[in-house]
Amino acid sequence: MGPFEMVIGIVLIVTIGGIIKAKHGIRRDNKGNEYFVGNAADKEETKALLAEIRALKERIQVLERIATDGNRAATLDEQIERLRDRP
Length: 87
What we know:
Strand content: 5-15%
Largest sheet: 2 strands, antiparallel
Oligomer: single chain
Structural class: mainly alpha
Radius of gyration: 16 Å
Order of helices and strands: HEEHH
Helix content: 55-70%
Number of strands: 2
């Protein structure tokens, strides 16, 4: 996978995350803080989705670091294995 495909993948993941958040009533105020707009029944699902989005953002950061760093192949393999071990 080349850098162009990786960038496209990252953009898609972030966009999908934004769509999911908007669908479930998560908004941002002027300062960038997220807040929930919806009924109480959706709160648990929203919390789970927020946790999943945080995990995806962490994975994106790792992928960006892997793509931009000129690391050795062994280090790259170790980072990929750490990503696979995450839930």
